[in-house]
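Weekly puzzle thread! Below is a chain. First person to post its structure in token form gets bragging rights.
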Amino acid sequence: MTDYGSLYAQNYFAHDTQSTSFDLASVPDMVASLAHDHGDALLDLGGGNGILAALLRDRGLKAFTVDAADREQENYAHYDLASHNPEAVGMLLSGLHASLGLKWIVTCLDVAEHIDREHLADFLLNLRHLTTRDCIISISTRPSSLGNRFHSSVLPISTWQKMLSLAGFEIVAENLFTAVNQGHRFHGDTEQIGAVAHWERANPFRDANAHQHYLLIRRNAAPPGAQGLRDSIAGFLDIRYRNDKRGAINVPFPPTFFNVNFIQDWSFVRPIMDVYPAQRLHLLFREDCIAPQYLHLLRNYCERTATPYAVIGSVTEGSSALSDWGCGANSLFITATEGLPSPTHAMNALVACEAGRIGATTLSLQHGVNISQAFSSSCDIVGTWDRKTANRLLDRMDAEGHPSVHAVGNPKFLDALMPPGDGGLSVRLGSWTSAFEAVYLIGLNLHWKMHEHGEAATYEWVRRTIDRNPNCLFILRPHPDDHSIYAMADILQSPNILLLDDMTLLAMDVSISRLMQDVDGVISTNSSLHIDAMAAGKPTVMLPSQPGLTERGGLLDSSWPTRTGNAPETISTEEWSTGKLPSALNIPAEVDSEWFAPSAETLQTLAKLAPHPKRLPEIVERTTSALVVAGNRQLSFNRHPHRDMILLSEALSAFVGG
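Winning reply:
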């Protein structure tokens, strides 16, 4: 969760003497005019440096600032708006009555989006108790600067309005201060502005108000019960499942180190972060395999949550970070990219070996739906998603010194297995999505030459499908390494298609696994998206693949969660050629629940692996030296940048520059 102390206690730019988040030329006068009906008094919540209250005092009004910063100055009080304590808020109100009288208008400008969604109910309780009648609240519905370091809750305005209603407020005016809310276009992909520019181009909330909203709200009902509101908000925002996961863990968390090689690996890491205390989980990000635009968001997510991380450009840098963090005996090192004879995997194997050399137990997780016949791990344990795949690997790894193989499951499948929230897709993306009769997710993997029909023909099928089915919303989910979609501006302008790539999902802090709960079906190439859908009980259909792909690639047979063990049904030739919705989307696959049993226990399993017996160092060294020259610890990752990462970075840069 958000660590407010590390973000705002020191060196936060909004606390600078002259810093404001509002228009100095107009907003103070507008607030002053509204305050005349509220005893000529203002309470500015989350007012930072106190400049708004000071300006109103200069106009002869009574004004007071409340903020999380602890400042020794008049007309200023320290209070944590993210935590509701009846006794503390009562003491604060007593002081406010002494300074302001019995009534005042409240301003709460650019505060709400900074509150972690797990604390929003408490924030709303505080807002309710500190408002005598009316409140002017401004809410940003986009990510922040610096790779969204500061906006913990990026939600559509209709979702905010519903939460305000649950807290006992009515919306008096939706377009307050329209004149100062014109906004401007954002361009560029620097760390400072790139996430905002990408968000504006994708516009997932279909926000026509410059992603900045000023509302005048009024108390209109009896105060809600604190626990009742917390429960309602948890279900509405789909965060209840996180507490369910936490409650299921009854073992200590070992110091854990996760080597994030590709952006895809974030889908494994993020569910773990729901449960692990921040200081027990340390993340390595490889700069040769993750596009800089993604790295901006990942780094700043860690900054916001006070999660230890390092961006590494060589094996030596990775080893140094592990050593600095105290990786060693009773620690667990995890990777999901390791075991293939390629520079990307081989260099990752060296980092894993370094972790093992200093005493950690090392674990290589299954990365995708297929495993190469050439797979050879240097880790102590290979963790598969299911027991069938584990048995197939065990058949190959029967020689002395091979890693042990366990079905440890997949944390992202666990999230798909958890019960859905109460709000649905409109809570995540906005009320505009309710206009469609059905929602389908299309997953494309066009960076990898596996589609039978190729890139151009596949996009033509997408066009046919969205044109023929205007009553359906299609969420387009490109593979994280795919760059081709960013040149398809005509497709993205269609009213019934929405691009949800990793840039937008990272800013929203929403996983595909949870999004599966809100769609009606999935159409995808050979991908783990099918398994996410099956875990969520949704129907799924396969796009045509190149004939003989598995045989040519030297892949182990895939294990599918269906009762028959077969892959999902493939779209028919007629459905492909006409854009007709596949008939298989009408019936969810019959799932073998046993297949998902390891994933249901995956977080508890991971926490127990640290004491696992280790492989002999000479055997690990022999395995690793078959992949790269042993001891080449100075090898720079950036000498072998991942080709897809370069193409993707260029495409993302062009996308936000248009």
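Puzzle host: Confirmed. Bonus trivia for everyone else. The longest strand covers residues 212-219.
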